[in-house]
């Protein structure tokens, strides 16, 4: 018996359309790969070229023949591995966490297209709990856990290495809806319930329950509708169903704000709520907009303070935050399902996802001094748009239940009548050297920057005064791409197998050839035509208004199909609809149109291999024979009790057809051709003639049939005549009493039949020989002969589809067909509805390809190879037939083998001339080419730019040779990213390193490289004792130590005056600058002014003290009621703080406190007293000990400077690295604190040798440029202080070791690249 096939044998799987049973599960990776659930498979799309990359089926459990619906999908958070292994056993960055309706959770591996392993979800004391949602949570720098919501209310957390569950939390009777990870802390996540129950989860490890910290919160919402739904479903058994199955139209989703820590936006079905996790309070509530369906999903915009909300009715609303408040206003409404060109009723939007890679690339191009931030064209189709008004772009992907994936371009534009202040424009141009049409992506203050990437000016040195007023921004949505997959559940499958007598539909006598097309009829009435070579839907025709019940090819360019509907109650009967569809013109022509409903519906269609004749089978009515001419003509009606009918398949051409043969070339079992038979046989085999010069009437075709009583027969159709074939009858009778014949296959000279008892019989119509065997299975529904080519030793391979929706392949030429069968009832992972062979074999060594229509609405191809020519045993083929044809290249570098992906990454980092991407094509235009002469084909060194070399100088050329097969096919980068690279390739190493990280989906690393020049400039200014200059727009200079109290004595002065809603959101994750931290803290103050409750007051006082607004803090403390439990501690702090403001305020505070008395204390009070006496360093240490890291940094930014501020940053960096496990954010803090050696040690400990070498290179580049920009009149002592970077001196042993190890790393990478096979799509 052949071994069970691996999933690699699936050359092609087209997923069926997703449905509500999939729970709207979809995930878009940072590298631009969209994964969404469709039935029991996961479809993976490349969003840049909008092509289907692959489909990964989930294998069924051992107890079932079919897999359950997949209900949750999440990409692995691992990045491209930098360490080099001898064998590439797995690709952690290309793995998917998948959960299904039966409660199974597994990791699917893209490379092997099979599960890497299954998590231990066994729960013997409860039914199978379907998976509702999945989320990755970080526990260490290189370790993640998987959190899962199972059933209605169970949260489970699994060790992703062992698959063991180490924590469970049952929130019953709550209903858990979704789980999301905090972008500011990857160890923290939140779980939301339908009633507003919010569970905060913080992981400290992955070993036991003690590693999990929980906090229960409540978001107020109206759950009246949910209570009604619960009452309605009280009598129904949930059976462990997730919330998406229990209440499919009632869901709650939320998203963390990427701009403000502790803030989330929650979308309940009819309510939008902004919630502060720190204050445990609702900041804002809005009702469902008029004319919109319930909320479906909430998506954040990283560049702007904007949220996008998808609705159940297919609408998309845009919500922006008002300045100085946490209040969101709806500012646009768009349709995600266009009303033109869609069916009625409109398709449902099941899932939406927003692209994160667009934001990173825009951040990179904003650093180019002479480039428009939106000059990077995200999509060519919109090149006609006036780019001067566009502020930001991003892509949104939506998945609908008609099998379409829509790609939308969301743009934020300035109003055309908006005018900018001329002085602002002038300053903007002088600072950034950017055209006046540019807009900075800044926050609600004017303090954001757009800087030259190589000039390493600190953030405060290049702040931009101009802002975009929020009221002047408009948001637009444009459709820029669409991928059309299978549109509905499959009902029929048809494969073209034209004989040589079939002529081309356009006329003439040229014979029709087999085409790589498969037609699929669907339950919605459409016919989808699949291009096998491209694994895509080539065309879709809306033909019927109901289920397509029959479908056949007429030659290779026409289709005939039928459907029927029941007549009205008054008339009764059936309305049969027969349609001929021309693939070339797209026209649908009906024939056999009846004026009244008929008594019997059509049962099946049978088309001859030439496409000239059609048999129409009715239920309990005569069979009609039609000639399928341009205008179909009925030839005759056959009133016999037929059970099955099948036309003969095209016969096998002889190996050397020297002349037209009039004998059957279907060899007998002994390998010798049979003797000439009767004239009908001669006539029916004339389709082996070379050409078709004779009249049509000289050709004849025959069909075999079985009657109700078991009798068999063969009729021949020639022209308009139908006559008995008069075959030689079998020696033993075929009339049986144990089973009705239910299926048949006919290819001269063999007729094969199957009955409802599982018996297979075959009969040679020329010799009368016959045989039979029992399959010991259910009844047989379909029998299909495999295609045969000259040289085949076996002509009797058949595919058998049983009534239990499983299949097998038998070889009737083998001595024991049953023993040598490919019996894999669970092989497809889905129940099989229809199957047929693909007749594209041209050589005996070509594999057999079986087309399968699955019960999960997927379409699959199975490749089978004959492994033993003597016995004819078949085994699945491990490799695809041939390389897939794609209309456009697949520009997804993350899919390359790991060594080749690392090679491309290194080439992009070191700097390759853009012309290399187009050395063998014509994509690159001259304006983007920096090469004066094209190097010779054998010398690739000329393509590398003259950047500072690091490592082995011979390695880049060898890597270019390794990548040559890819760039010849233009499948490394798409045109737009090549254009972007051409703009930044000479802008310094930081830009190239950020671009390389963004291309491979490593957005945090990209932000690190973008932020590194500012952090290093901050350090060198401190070392040189050079006070940073304020930006040209700054009206006053802030002295942090001396005048802070007087400057912010009024609460209103602490509020930013900018009305700008646009900020560089991603870069705020790595904020370290004092001015920036202080202003963001002031922005948060205004959100909490109206919050009530003792806890809210304590938090607000803490914020006021952190920003130095002691007068406002005293005012809030003195307003405490004497009955409050916080009165005593508030009074004590009020007295202490007032003494630091003024004597008059101290006297007032003492009078108020003296009139009242006492109660408890609070742990944070000591911090405030330390601030009152000026002990800010100790206060920051206390805050950090208590876990208030951001507040400690804010306090330090307000009161500390120099080495004191650096100590706070360095301790914060240790926390971010070792507890939050965010290495990129920690590196920025280390650099800003001057701890370069600690930053280098962190990179080495994380096994990032290439990044460590590039870090040293970039730091030296920035350092040299900083020295060159010092004025010649500068004090020589200042230059001496920064002559060497601390910890990165060239003589440092650590630095030397990094350089040596990087050289070894490069050489090993070259060897691995040489040994790895190129990625074959």
TrEMBL record:
SUPFAM superfamilies for this protein: WD40 repeat-like
Q: Where is this region: Disordered?
A: 653-694
The WDR11 TPR domain, residue ranges:
916-1313
What superkingdom does the record give?
Eukaryota
Where is the WDR11 first beta-propeller domain positioned along the sequence? 16-483
Q: Name one Pfam family in it.
A: Beta-prop_WDR11_1st
Q: What is this protein called?
A: WD repeat-containing protein 11
Tell me which species this is from. Salvia divinorum (Maria pastora)
Q: Name the lineage.
A: Eukaryota, Viridiplantae, Streptophyta, Embryophyta, Tracheophyta
């Amino acid at each position: 018996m052949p071994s069970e096939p691996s999933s690699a044998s699936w050359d092609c799987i087209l997923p069926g359309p997703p449905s509500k049973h999939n729970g709207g599960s979809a995930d878009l990776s940072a590298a631009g790969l969209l994964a969404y659930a469709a039935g029991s498979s996961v479809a993976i799309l490349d969003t840049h070229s909008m092509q289907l990359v692959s489909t990964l089926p989930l294998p069924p459990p051992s107890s079932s023949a079919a897999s359950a619906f997949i209900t949750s999908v999440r990409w692995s958070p691992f990045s491209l591995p930098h360490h080099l292994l001898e064998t590439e056993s797995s690709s952690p960055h290309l793995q998917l966490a998948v959960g299904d309706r039966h409660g199974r959770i597994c990791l699917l591996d893209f490379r092997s297209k099979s599960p890497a392993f299954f998590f231990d979800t066994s729960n013997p004391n409860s039914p199978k709990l379907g998976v509702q949602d999945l989320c990755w949570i970080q526990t260490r720098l290189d370790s993640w856990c998987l959190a899962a919501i199972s059933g209605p209310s169970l949260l489970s957390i699994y060790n992703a290495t062992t698959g063991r569950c180490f924590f469970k939390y049952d929130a019953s009777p709550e209903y858990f809806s979704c789980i999301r990870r905090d972008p500011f802390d990857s160890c923290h996540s939140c779980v939301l319930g339908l009633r507003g129950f919010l569970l905060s989860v913080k992981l400290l490890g992955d070993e036991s329950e003690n590693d999990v910290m929980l906090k229960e919160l409540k978001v107020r919402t109206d759950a009246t509708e949910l209570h009604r739904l619960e009452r309605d479903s009280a009598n129904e058994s949930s059976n462990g169903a997730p919330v998406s199955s229990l209440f499919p139209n009632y869901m709650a989703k939320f998203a963390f704000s990427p701009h403000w820590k502790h803030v989330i936006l929650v979308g309940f079905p009819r309510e939008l709520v902004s919630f502060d996790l720190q204050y445990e309070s609702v900041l804002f509530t809005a009702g469902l907009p008029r004319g919109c369906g319930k909320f479906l999903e909430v998506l954040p915009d990283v560049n702007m303070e904007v949220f996008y909300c998808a609705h159940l009715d297919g609408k998309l609303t845009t919500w922006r935050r008002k300045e100085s408040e946490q209040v969101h206003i709806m500012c646009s409404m768009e349709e995600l399902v266009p009303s033109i060109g869609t069916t009625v009723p409109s398709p449902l939007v099941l899932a939406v996802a927003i692209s994160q890679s667009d934001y990173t690339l825009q951040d990179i191009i904003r650093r180019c001094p002479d480039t428009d931030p939106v000059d990077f064209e995200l999509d060519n189709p919109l090149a006609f748009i006036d780019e001067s008004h566009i502020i930001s772009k991003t892509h949104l992907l939506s998945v609908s239940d008609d099998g379409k994936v829509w790609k939308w371009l969301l743009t934020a534009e300035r109003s055309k009548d908006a005018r900018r202040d001329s002085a602002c424009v002038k300053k903007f141009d002088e600072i950034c050297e950017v055209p006046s049409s540019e807009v900075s992506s800044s926050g609600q203050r004017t303090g954001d920057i757009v800087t030259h990437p190589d000039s390493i000016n600190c953030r405060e040195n290049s702040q931009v005064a101009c802002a975009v007023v929020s009221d002047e921004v408009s948001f637009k949505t444009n459709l820029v791409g669409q991928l059309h997959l299978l549109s509905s559940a499959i009902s029929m499958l048809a494969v073209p197998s034209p004989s040589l007598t079939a002529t081309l539909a356009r006329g003439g006598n040229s014979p029709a050839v087999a085409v790589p097309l498969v037609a699929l009829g669907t339950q919605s009435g459409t016919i989808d035509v699949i291009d096998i070579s491209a694994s895509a839907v080539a065309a879709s025709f809306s033909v019927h208004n109901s289920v397509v019940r029959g479908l056949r090819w007429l030659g290779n360019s026409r289709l005939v199909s039928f459907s029927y509907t029941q007549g009205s109650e008054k008339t009764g009967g059936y309305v049969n609809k027969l349609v001929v569809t021309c693939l070339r013109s797209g026209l649908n022509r009906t024939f056999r149109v009846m004026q009244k409903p008929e008594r019997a519906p059509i049962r099946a269609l049978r088309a001859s291999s030439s496409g000239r004749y059609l048999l129409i089978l009715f239920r309990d009515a005569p069979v009609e024979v039609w000639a399928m001419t341009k205008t179909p003509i009925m030839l005759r009606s056959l009133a016999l009790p037929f059970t099955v009918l099948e036309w003969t398949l095209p016969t096998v051409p002889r190996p050397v057809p020297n002349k037209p043969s009039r004998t059957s070339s279907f060899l007998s079992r002994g390998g010798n051709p049979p003797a000439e038979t009767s004239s009908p046989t001669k006539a029916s085999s004339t389709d082996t003639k070379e050409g078709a010069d004779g009249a049509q009437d000289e050709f004849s075709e025959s069909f075999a049939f079985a009657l109700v009583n078991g009798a068999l027969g063969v009729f021949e159709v020639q022209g308009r005549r139908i006559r008995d074939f008069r075959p030689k009858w079998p020696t033993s009778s075929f009339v049986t009493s144990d089973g009705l014949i239910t299926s048949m296959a006919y290819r001269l000279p063999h007729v094969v039949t199957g009955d409802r008892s599982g018996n297979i019989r075959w009969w040679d119509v020329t010799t009368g020989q016959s045989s039979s065997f029992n399959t010991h299975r259910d009844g047989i529904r379909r029998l299909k002969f495999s295609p045969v080519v000259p040289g085949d030793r076996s002509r009797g391979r058949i595919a058998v589809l049983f009534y239990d929706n499983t299949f097998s392949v038998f070889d009737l030429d083998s001595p024991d067909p049953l023993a040598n069968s490919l019996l894999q009832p669970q092989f497809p992972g889905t129940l099989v509805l229809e199957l047929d062979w693909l007749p594209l074999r041209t050589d005996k060594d070509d594999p057999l390809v079986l087309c399968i229509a699955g019960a999960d609405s997927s379409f699959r191809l199975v490749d089978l190879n004959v492994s033993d020519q003597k016995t004819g045993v078949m085994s699945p083929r491990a490799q695809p037939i041939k390389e897939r044809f794609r209309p456009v290249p697949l520009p997804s570098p993350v899919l390359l083998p790991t060594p080749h992906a690392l090679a491309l990454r290194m080439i992009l980092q070191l700097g390759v001339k853009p012309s290399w991407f187009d050395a063998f094509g014509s994509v690159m235009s001259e304006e983007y080419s920096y090469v004066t002469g094209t190097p010779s084909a054998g010398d690739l060194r000329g393509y590398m730019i003259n950047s500072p070399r690091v490592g082995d100088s011979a390695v880049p050329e060898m890597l270019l040779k390794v990548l040559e097969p890819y760039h010849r096919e233009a499948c490394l980068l798409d045109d737009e990213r090549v254009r972007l690279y051409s703009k930044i390739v000479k802008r310094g190493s930081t830009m190239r390193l950020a671009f390389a990280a963004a291309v491979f989906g490593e957005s945090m690393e990209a932000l690190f490289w973008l932020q590194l020049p500012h952090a290093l400039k901050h350090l060198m200014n401190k070392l040189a004792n050079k006070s940073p200059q304020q930006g040209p727009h700054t009206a006053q200079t802030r002295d942090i130590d001396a005048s802070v109290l007087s400057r912010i004595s009024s609460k209103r002065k602490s509020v930013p005056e900018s009305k700008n809603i646009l900020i560089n959101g991603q870069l705020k994750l790595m904020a370290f600058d004092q001015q920036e931290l202080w202003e963001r803290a002031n922005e948060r103050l205004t959100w909490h002014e109206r919050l009530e409750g003792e806890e809210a007051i304590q938090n607000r006082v803490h914020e006021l003290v952190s920003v130095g607004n002691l007068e406002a803090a005293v005012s809030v403390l003195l307003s405490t009621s004497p009955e409050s439990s916080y009165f005593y501690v508030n009074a004590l702090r009020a007295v202490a703080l007032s003494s630091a403001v003024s004597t008059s305020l101290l006297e007032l505070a003492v009078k108020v406190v003296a009139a009242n008395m006492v109660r408890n204390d609070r742990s944070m009070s000591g911090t405030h007293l330390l601030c009152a006496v000026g002990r800010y360093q100790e206060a920051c240490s206390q805050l950090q000990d208590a876990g208030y890291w951001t507040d400690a940094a804010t306090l330090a930014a307000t009161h500390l400077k120099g080495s004191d501020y650096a100590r706070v940053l360095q301790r914060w960096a240790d926390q971010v690295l070792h507890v939050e496990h965010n290495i990129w954010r920690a590196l920025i803090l280390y650099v800003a604190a001057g701890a370069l050696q600690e930053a280098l040690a962190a990179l080495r400990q994380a096994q990032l040798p290439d990044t460590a070498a590039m870090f040293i290179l970039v730091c030296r580049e920035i350092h040299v440029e900083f020295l060159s920009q010092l004025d010649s009149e500068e004090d020589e002592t200042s230059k001496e202080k920064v002559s060497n970077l601390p910890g990165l001196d060239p003589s440092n042993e650590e630095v030397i070791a990094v350089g040596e190890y990087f050289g070894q790393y490069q050489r090993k990478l070259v060897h691995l690249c040489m040994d790895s096979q190129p990625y074959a799509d």
